[in-house]
Design goal:
The chain is of the alpha+beta class. It has one domain: Alpha-Beta Complex (tt1808, chain A), CATH 3.90.1570.10. It is about 25% helix and about 30% strand. The strands form 4 sheets. Strands 3-6-7-8-9-10 form a 6-stranded mixed β-sheet, with helices on both faces. A hairpin with a 5-residue loop joins β11 and β12. About 35% of the residues are buried.
């Protein structure tokens, strides 16, 4: 089977209807629509959830004016025709009030992904998501790669990609640049790997 590259699998509004039905019929099912392709996002395991909890606490302590919103659906890509479920996004507390299933990404300061153990993690989290988030204009993309035991910070989006990428192994401090302005001490991540 080949993937259509010249046109999307379906219209964005049709995808939204399918995603709503899938979420209702199969609790916990999260579908994404990036580069015109429908993908199912893996259910997070316990260590994945613990990493998000850790980030939530770090963000609340460092930036009490902001909130790390877990699993907020967003309109993604350059023309907002994609749909993504970042593991979390950093924005002000009321950023998504009244926005429905797929929020406008304008207030997002940082998108967060924590890798899963499914087969398309490398393509999705290292290629498709950075491209989609940069196209959306999200200032910072934080990727916690559990297979590689690395943390990547993407910044300076130019509308197609991030101009700056910093990668460090677990245990190394890494700065989340402005507008986030937090330094992560990544030592605790060593406790949440297989």
């Amino acid at each position: 089977m080949s993937v259509m590259t010249d046109r999307p699998h379906m219209l964005t509004e049709d995808f939204e209807a399918v995603a709503r039905i899938a979420a209702r019929e199969r609790e916990g099912t999260r579908l994404e629509f990036i580069d015109g392709v429908i993908r199912s996002k893996a259910m997070p395991d316990g260590d994945h959830g613990r990493i998000i909890q850790w980030l939530l606490k770090v963000c609340m302590q460092s930036r009490p004016d902001l909130f790390l919103h877990p699993a907020q659906g967003i309109k993604a890509q350059e023309y907002r025709d994609g749909r993504a479920f970042p593991d979390a996004v950093l924005a002000h507390p009321d950023a998504f009030v009244g926005q429905g299933d797929w929020a406008d990404p304008a207030p997002i300061l940082m998108a967060v992904e924590v890798t899963s153990w499914d087969s398309d993690t490398q393509r999705r989290d290292h290629v498709e998501k950075p491209r989609a988030y940069a196209g959306t204009g999200i200032p910072v993309y934080l990727l916690v790669d559990r297979a590689k035991c690395e943390v990547s910070v993407y910044s300076q989006p130019n509308g197609r990609r991030y101009e700056s990428v910093h990668i460090v192994p677990y245990g190394t401090d890494i700065a989340l640049p402005d507008p986030v302005g937090i330094t992560l001490q990544t030592e605790p991540l060593k406790d949440w790997v297989r």
